[in-house]
Each structure stands twice: as structure tokens, then as C-alpha cells.
Amino acid sequence: MVNCGTILVVDSDDATRAAAVQVAVRLGCEVSVADDAELARERLNGDRPALAIVEVELAGATNGLELLRELHERFGDDLPVILVSGDRVSALDRVAGLMLGADDYLVKPFDTGELLARVRRSLRRVAAPAGNGNGNGRPTTDVTLSPREREILALLAEGRSQSDIAASLVISPKTVATHIQHLLGKLGVHSRAQAVAFAFQRGLVDPDVRAHVFLPALQAAD
């Protein structure tokens, strides 16, 4: 991939910024680095980046979730934003970030190779023509899940681990893993967190669970 545009990196951590610069060089992209939202706005100067990597726990008046929303309001929801965090690392935190519009959510510390793969996938998604969801990285809108798959998806949405789900359903963890892989394929997503976000978006989980998970994140972004 060459001439992919500018990757905006907004993170206070030196290691994250260094990894992002390495990724940009590998992909043939320009890179603009800032350690807070205010400096990021100056660096952008009104130009749309190809992709943004944003730390959730940004210092200053604007945190990462607020900057995510600002970038989408300014440049459109199709701008891929990868959230990164070293503190808000639970499954529910990741799902909340995805529900707020992030393209991906990466937990620190991470390997530079993993960041490269995530960035490459997001850039390919926005470069691909619109489709049914399974080929362009967006969740499909037409999906048929088996009763067992719906059951497992609901348990994932409650924040249950693979071993907890296996114990609850009296099946092996390996069987749970197989069902989860089938779920990801049917939904056209790449992670459990994205699958759970899809479940919330489609009303496949209890509204009380949804409110418990997302209300703090939504309030933080207001």
C-alpha cells in the first residue's frame, strides 16, 4: 500500500507514538503526531487524515472518546479511528468504544506488528467498495444465528469469559470457541468485542445490560 495519506496519532505515550510512526513508514503513509487533542487539531489544520489512532485517556479538556466523536462529526463516520488504552482494557470498555464509533480498540501494551495489522485492515476497509458486510469489515445486516449462537452472544454481552460460558451451558470451552468463530464469520466482524457491539446495535441483548455497559461511556463523551 503506497500513498495512503496521513495517519493521525494522538497519544501521550512515547512507545505508542514510536510504534505508530513505524507502522506509517511500513505502509507508505505520512504521520502527524500529537500528545493531546488541542495539538492534534493544530496539526490537522482542517485536513482529513486517512486514519486516526487515539488514546482513550488523553490529558486536557478533550479525552479520547470526545475526540473520536469530534473527528467523526468533522470528517464523517467513515473515518477509521483506532482507540488505544492502557487503563480501560475490559471487554465492556472495548465494546463501549466500538459502540461510540471506533473502528477498532487496541489494549496496551501491544506489539507493533499487531498495530500494523489493525491499521492495514482499517485502511483496506475504507478503500473497499461497499458490500454486504463480510468483505469490507463492516457487520452484515442480514444474519441468521442458531439458538445456541444467540445464547453465547448474549452471554458475551454480559461480559462472561469463554470458561464461564462453557460452565453455564455445560459444554466444553473448545465448543464455545467454535461457536464464537462461527458467530464472528456470520456477523462479518473480527473480534468478540465487535460481535457484542453488533448485538447491542441490533437489539439482540437485554436493554438493561446495554444501559449498564454503555451509560458511563456515553456520559463521558457528552
Topology:
Layout lengths: L5 E5 L3 H14 L2 E5 L2 H8 L6 E5 L8 H12 L5 E5 L5 H9 L4 E4 L4 H16 L19 H11 L4 H8 L3 H15 L4 H10 L5 H15 L1
Parallel strand pairs: 1-2, 1-3, 3-4, 4-5
Helix pairs in contact: 1-5, 4-9, 4-10, 6-8, 6-9, 7-8
**Distance between termini?**
37 Å
- CATH topology (level 3) name of the largest domain: Rossmann fold
How would a textbook summarize the main sheet?
5 strands, parallel
User: How many β-strands, per DSSP?
Assistant: 5
The shape, in one word, is elongated
Strand content: 5-15%
Instruction: Tell me roughly what share of residues is in helical segments.
Output: 40-55%
H and E string:
EHEHEHEHEHHHHHH
- Our Rg estimate from Cα atoms comes to 18 Å
**CATH homologous superfamily classification of the largest domain:** Response regulator
Work out the helix count: 10
* CATH top level label of the largest domain: Alpha Beta
Give the second-level CATH assignment, the architecture of the largest domain. Answer: 3-Layer(aba) Sandwich
Could you explain how this protein is built, in words?
With 222 residues, this protein is α/β, with parallel strands linked by helices. It has two domains: 6-127, Rossmann fold (3-Layer(aba) Sandwich); 147-221, Winged helix-like DNA-binding domain superfamily/Winged helix DNA-binding domain (Arc Repressor Mutant, subunit A). The longest helix is centred in the middle third of the chain and has 16 residues, at 112-127. It has helices spanning 14-27, 37-44, 64-75, 91-99, 112-127, 147-157, 162-169, 173-187, 192-201, 207-221, and strands spanning 6-10, 30-34, 51-55, 81-85, 104-107.
